[in-house]
Amino acid sequence: MVDLPRIVITGVGLTSPNGDDLSTYRANLLAGVSGVEPWEIRHFGATVAGVCHFEATRYQKRKALRRGTRAGSIAIWCANEALKHAGIDLDHFDRSRVGVYVGTTEHGNVETENQIHEVSQYGFDLSYWSHHHNPRTVANNPAGEVTLNLNIHGPAYCVGGACAGGNLGLIQAAQMLQLGEVDVALGGGVSESIHTFGIFASFKSEGALGGHDDPTKVSRPFDQDRNGIVVSEGGCLYVLERLEDARARGANILAEVVGHAVNSDAADFVLSLPERQVECMRTAIERAGMAPEDIHIVNTHATSTPLGDIQECVAVGQVFNDSATTRVNNTKSFIGHTMGAAGALELAGNLPSFNDGVVHPTINVENLDPECSLRGLVLNEPLEVGRVDTILNLSFGMLGINSAVVVRRPGV
Questions:
Q1: By the 8 A CB rule, do 78 and 237 touch?
Q2: Is 101:78 a contact under the CB 8 Å cutoff?
Q3: Which CATH superfamily is domain 260-408 in?
Q4: Residue 260: closest CA among 138, 157, 135, 169
Q5: Contacts of 44 (CB under 8 A, 6+ apart)
Q6: Class of CATH domain 7-248
Q7: In which region does residue 316 sit, left (phi positive, over 0), alpha (psi from -120 to 50) or beta (all else)?
Q8: What residues contact residue 86 under an 8 Å CB cut-off, 6+ apart?
Q9: Cα separation of 86 and 93, whole Å?
Q10: Is the pTM of this model over 0.85?
Q11: Collapsing DSSP states into helix, strand and coil, what is residue 181?
Q12: What is the sign of the dihedral through the CA atoms of 412, 6, 165 and 351?
């Protein structure tokens, strides 16, 4: 059996509803600051959403912003911030050996809805249809926009993994490094979902769109009174490298990717299957050479839907309820569901635990649902545990896709 190269994370670039860099984002997770706010969208009306407020013109000219997409702009921000965080100047690298792997849920809905609205104002005269529409809506757009912005010549594409997309982008980046296809990889996920009324309308028709008098309390996984998700935008891309390359350039190593797994329920279009989630978790842990009690933090996918949270808690409980050393938390309670970015953003929120020994909580749990009462669940206030060595990051998606990534503290 061939020993594969070890893969490490050396940079994080993100924008989230409650922070546009890792330090701000982490501080707000520890301080209980939600990023959910009132939102109104054409053809739907008033609702709430997780909205990002990053300064797009830091890395893009206004002409590029007009021509490109919101998802592309988010990806460009995250890629530039991640490279800066990693201390990488691409002028010192072979740009044909740099890869970009962006997980997404859907892409192109926003642009198509906007174009249809535009031509409707002119009696559907298609001469008003933008010639930029096709490059805006192709599935590889966010990754492609990153290559244009940064003059990257290596493989760049998107991984369509529904709400598991952020994890899948990270996994793909790690695998391409191990295969020797690239020397530096940008991997993670992005989402522009709040800009399409169809997303809101669909979740509402499913009875899965959350509500509360206080926007900051709409997203409340595990709470007895939860009633649905908050649709959010956001993005997070990581710089990944082979361990020997990172050490050779004196990089600050944030974490090592030591295990991952992806499988499919093959059961339902929407509702998850605990049995397959259990298999996914156990496979990732086994591939990391660990047992459940070796995992110190489990970041749950839980979206604040009544049945979805219960199904996941059943699965997590089967794997971890015998472990006294595992803590369980949730990041969507702060930022809502960032769809294709969720896995990547939620892992980022926990990475600083390797340094500060603190587990961020799930907020907004005023009345814990007994069916979600997991052992080790951290609620409402951060928990100091002294030392965190390992994190299991869970992301699941529609059509039954499950993903799990295990990372560990550098040097462990």
A1: yes
A2: no
A3: Thiolase/Chalcone synthase (3.40.47.10)
A4: 169
A5: 197, 200, 201, 204
A6: alpha beta
A7: alpha
A8: 10, 11, 239, 251, 252
A9: 13
A10: yes
A11: coil
A12: positive
Which has the closest alpha carbon to 200: 48, 389, 17? Answer: 48
**Is residue 164 within 8 Å of residue 211, measured between CB atoms?**
no
Q: What is the pLDDT of residues 264-305, one digit of tens each?
A: 999 999 888 999 999 999 999 999 999 999 999 999 999 999
Label residue 313 exposed, middle or buried (CB < 10 Å: 0-12, 13-18, 19+). buried
Nearest-angstrom CA–CA distance, 291 and 278: 13
Integer Cα distance of 262 and 141 in angstroms: 24
Query: What tokens appear for 205 in the block?
Result: 């028709």
Tokens at 318, concatenated: 């089967």
Per-residue pLDDT tens digits for 45-87? 999 999 999 999 999 999 999 999 999 999 999 999 999 999 9
Query: Phi and psi (nearest 5°) for 247?
Result: -65, -40
Structure tokens at 169: 């982008």
pLDDT for 1 equals: 55
Angle of helix 22-31 relative to helix 342-350, nearest 10 degrees, comes to: 80
Two structure tokens written together for 27: 């501080």
Residues of the chain with CATH 3.40.47.10: 7-248, 260-408
